[in-house]
Amino acid sequence: MEMKVFENPAEVARAAAQYWVSLKPRTVALSGGSTPRVLYELLSDPREPFRAQIAWDKTHFFFSDERHVPPDHPDSNYRMVNEAMFSRVPVPPENIHRIPAENPNAEDAAKAYETDLRKFFGEATPDFDLLLLGLGEDGHTASLFPHFKPTEGLVAAPWVEKFNSYRITMTLPVLNNAKSVVFLVTGASKAAILKEVIKADKKPDLYPAQAISPTNGAVSWFIDKAAARLCSISNSSNAAPESDLENKNP
Ligand code: 6PG
Q1: What's the pLDDT at 247?
Q2: Which pLDDT band, with edges at 50, 70 and 90, does 222 fall under?
Q3: For residues 142 and 229, what is the distance between their CA atoms, to the nearest angstrom?
């Protein structure tokens, strides 16, 4: 597990962009929310080097999760990524695998997405070259919220009480089959949860982000100083033993 701390969200995004182009991923599962937007904008910015370094026509984009809304809804992860990246780069439409969250039946949307995944990856569990994830202030990641119930299959449609709505999300077996997982965590609001999540005593039922432990993949955390405020992360490039990750007193 590699944890690196950067000055601010812009530098987190730049480091993640450099990591992305170094990987040359052909399959990418994108995360939603607000944190990754700056990365998507950086990757697609013609004034930056990354746009020309990515083989957009050879890369297939998927979503680790989606809100149960149409693709033009302000809360849609697809809408965010389309505005920040897809609309600014030469990615073929057939390379964008959107979760059909406009389906009024969230379970049917999840089943349809599972069919899309199996059509692309075959019967084996998808093994994304790159999987981006965020961290919620309650310890969720993708749309695996505290006390989530593991489900059969590749995609689930959990009811999320706190949002009074369904989500559609890839399941742990898929997330943990990725070859490279990158958590992007920025902002002071994430300091408390990050301190909890990186502790050695794991409580994945309470903090689902702790359940992310790829079988054959690497996990990298790209964090800004504000989010790392309560932790002492020595930019370790190995599984950091507890001693390396002392928790500073707030
Ligand atoms: C979503 C994301 C979710 C997100 C975290 C962090 O659909 O919202 O997939 O898991 O990564 O909630 O969100 P922020 O980046 O907005 O803090």
Answers
A1: 44
A2: very high
A3: 23
The rounded distance, in Å, linking the Cα atoms of 133 and 184 is: 6
Q: What is the pLDDT of residue 151?
A: 85
pTM above threshold 0.85: yes
Burial 55-70 (b: 16+ CB within 10 A, else e): ebeebbbbbbbbbbbe
The mean pLDDT value for 199-227 works out to 95
Measured from the Cα of 64, ligand 1's closest atom is 9
- pLDDT bin (cut points 50, 70, 90) of residue 215 is confident
Per-residue CA distances from 211 to 57, 142, 146, 174, 220 (Å): 33, 12, 11, 12, 14
Position 200 confidence tier, pLDDT thresholds 50, 70, 90: confident
Q: What are phi and psi of 73, to 5 degrees?
A: -80, 145
Closest CA to ligand 1's atom 15: 35
Residue in 30, 133, 140 to alter for ligand 1 test, most ligand atoms within 8 A of Cβ: 140
- Cα(142) to centroid(ligand 1), Å: 7
**Residues constituting the chain:** 250
Give the residue among 146, 182, 218, 231 at the shortest CA–CA distance from 64: 182
